[in-house]
């Protein structure tokens, strides 16, 4: 069992609750976790890089000077990659970097990321976050009360529009529902802040984890 602090938005830490970390597995699967993170990073690439080949540069195709008698190396066109301003050989062109992994592997990667955060003491729970209207200033103050000083991932059960709007403009803070959070979200934030309902929803989503 791991002791996870429970906070209230108005009074700070109020208790510690035991959490069974074995629901996320018995050991962090580092290689699988790395594979998942690399996949998410690759899928985020736009792949819009492009350079011009010798067929695309804006030069005439006429011979720049005569073949013999100049003392210079023979040349047939200024578009040659050997010339300054010429085309690029095997340069990058727009491409799709995205690829996928099995859903079971992605679920296990998420569990490994969560297990690591729990063992490192970087997970906390909160309750009584009841904002009638979006309040970014109050949410920022509440995060400080939750002992969050760096980047934070706030996990909600889903559908809480007010809390999402309250946190979306806070630097280094990301709000996700328990149904959309992934391993990359977990490992790239210093603290993981769950609502109690959000944590329960995540447990229901992952179900039983096979090592």
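^ Assign residues to that structure.
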């Amino acid at each position: 069992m791991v002791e996870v602090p429970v906070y209230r938005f108005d009074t700070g830490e109020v208790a510690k609750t035991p959490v069974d970390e074995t629901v996320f597995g018995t050991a962090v699967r580092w290689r699988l976790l790395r594979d998942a993170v690399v996949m998410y990073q690759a899928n985020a690439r736009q792949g819009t890089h492009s350079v011009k080949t010798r067929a695309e540069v804006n030069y005439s195709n006429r011979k720049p000077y005569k073949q013999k008698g100049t003392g210079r190396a023979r040349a047939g066109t200024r578009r040659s990659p050997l010339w300054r301003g010429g085309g690029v050989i095997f340069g990058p062109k727009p491409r799709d970097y995205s690829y996928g992994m099995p859903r079971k592997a992605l679920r296990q990667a998420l569990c490994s990321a969560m297990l690591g955060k729990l063992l490192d003491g970087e997970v906390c729970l909160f309750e009584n976050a009841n904002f009638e209207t979006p309040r970014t200033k109050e949410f920022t103050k509440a995060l400080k009360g939750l002992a969050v000083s760096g980047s934070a991932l706030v996990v909600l059960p889903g559908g809480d529009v007010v809390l999402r709007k309250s946190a979306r403009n806070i630097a280094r803070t990301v709000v996700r529902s328990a149904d959309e959070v992934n391993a990359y979200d977990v490992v790239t934030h210093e603290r993981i802040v769950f609502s109690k309902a959000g944590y329960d929803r995540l447990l229901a989503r992952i179900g039983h984890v096979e090592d």
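Residues 149 and 163 are 19 Å apart (CA to CA).
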